[in-house]
Description:
The complex is a heterodimer. By secondary structure, chain A is mostly helical. Helices cover 79% and strands 2% of the residues of chain A. Chain B has a single domain (2-51, 71-112), classed as Helix Hairpins.
Amino acid sequence: MSSHLFIILPIVIPFTVAVVTLLLRKAPQIQQWVNLTGMLALMAVSVNLLWLVHVDGIQATTFGGWAAPFGITFVADHLAAIMVLSGALMGLAISLYGMAEMDKERIAFGYYPFMNMLMAGVIGAYMTGDLFNLYVWFEVLLIASFVLMALGNTREQLTADIKYVAINLVSSLLFLGGVGLIYGITGSLNMAEISLLLAEVESPALITTIAMLFIISFGIKSAIFPLYFWLPASYHTPPPTIMALFAGLLTKVGVYALIRVFTLFFTYDVGYTHTLLLWIAGFTMVSGVLGAAIQTDFRRILSFHIVSQIGYMIMGLALFTPVALVGAIFYIVHNQLAKTNLFLISGLANRLEGTFTLKKLGGLYAVYPGLAVLFVISSFALAGFPPLTGFWGKLVLAIGALETQEYIILAVALLVGMMTMFSMAKIWMYGFMPGTESNRANATSDDHTLLGMGNGASGTPYVTSPVMMYIPIVLVALLIVAASVFFGPVYTITEQAALELLDPSLYIDAVLNP
Amino acid sequence: MEILLAFVVGGLFAASVYLILRRNLVRLIIGIVLLSNAVNLLIFTMGRMTRGEPGFIPVGQELPPEVIANPLSQALILTAIVIGFGLLAFTLVLVYRTNKDSILVDSDDLRDEEIDPSVYHK
């Protein structure tokens, strides 16, 4: 019984916090503490869930007492539990950061309820075992993210939100169409049962068509190669707290959904679908990192790197071996930590210096050496310097590529790693090393405000001391170091996740024969 | 009946893609509405068509008759319509709000605005 409770709690907690903070509309400071308590509880529950899954195997529960293929199922396997835990970690770090960064106006207009709805949507999407229910969770997280992106009503945010909303609505509808087609073919919505029934379908062409619908719709959400253009056009507009929340959670849900459907449903023609994914992975890496090369705004560089890092995760999925899948899953967690932390650092730099433009930031190292150290840890982790997490992720993926003799993607992955280092070095050179005086004087207000890269955060927060913003950044940096040092145990857990993915019968058994 | 609906769905998809690719933002919204209706009809058709066979179990029996209308696909559409309605309302307000303090209705301007926001101030 208690195991059922722990499957439900990760969604119940953020939902409850959303409702309570909505009721506390008039008391924003209490909202902050309610939210923080909720995130701590979520964290504890997620650790417990991962422990439960690791010890007792895949957990499943159905709602309303309906037996498995009929009721809506919630399933926690290793992958889902890992994703929930790292999502909860992001939520906690961002909540701490938001206390010192999120301005009073945005809190008054409901930042906390929407943030928690977003968390609930993301976690629901990780845990659900029902295809239509997955669509519903996607909509929950989307509508919350639509509001969060527009919150504050600056015009950059509104125009960015139009692009974001339009492309995501189309993507959701394509996904819904795919769900309808799968239901028409198999007569089921339960993901475990669909996996069984799709194996008996005699027209593979029809299934491939549906697979393409899923690639396009989840591809838009996870920002893969030809479909990523909305991301760098919109992610830099909201304040750093919301930016970090999106960077840490949203695209990763898309990647999670891709991993789920391309290990559970569409494995009958790996030669076609997964080769296509491999090409997509290569182009995603390269185009993202090249896009970052010409940018001079801290946030926009990081936005393009989100795209390029997604390529590595898709690469792990496309290679479709146990080692490569370990690489993909570990890479998601690593990326959530490193990327979110870099966004948090960019927000802190903006708080300290009042700008995101690198040339104007110049010389952060001399004034704030602590911040420089934190940046070095996160950016080295992102670029893949040993012994940090990015190195381990890339090493595991490289071994996967060598095993399957995909040398081209291996070369691309390593080259993109070097180019990532180039981007990070650019931030370091312009932002942290002492700029010449003329440099800083020349880059005054005009070129900066004209480019519309001005105030991500406008009003004042409740805690004005930037020291509070250091806490989550240090915390996440320590986690990066910890995950690098204790890579052994982390590998063991992610390996379990990969083995479960490659043997869908475990998932199916856990759902259909509890 | 299925064939007729297949053509209707196809036509709706074509019309919605055409409208979404137009530059006017209001047309974009209408395109998304048509797309969501097309998808709903698709799900309806995938649930198989029956006529005059409501999904009821007659009084005194345990099982429904052999052929009944599929209630599940209709439940799915109902959920999708409600979600789509909420999203549509949000999108309309968003475009209206954006239009209110800039002269922006052309989606190409969105790109120009990203490069230089001062151009389209009202």
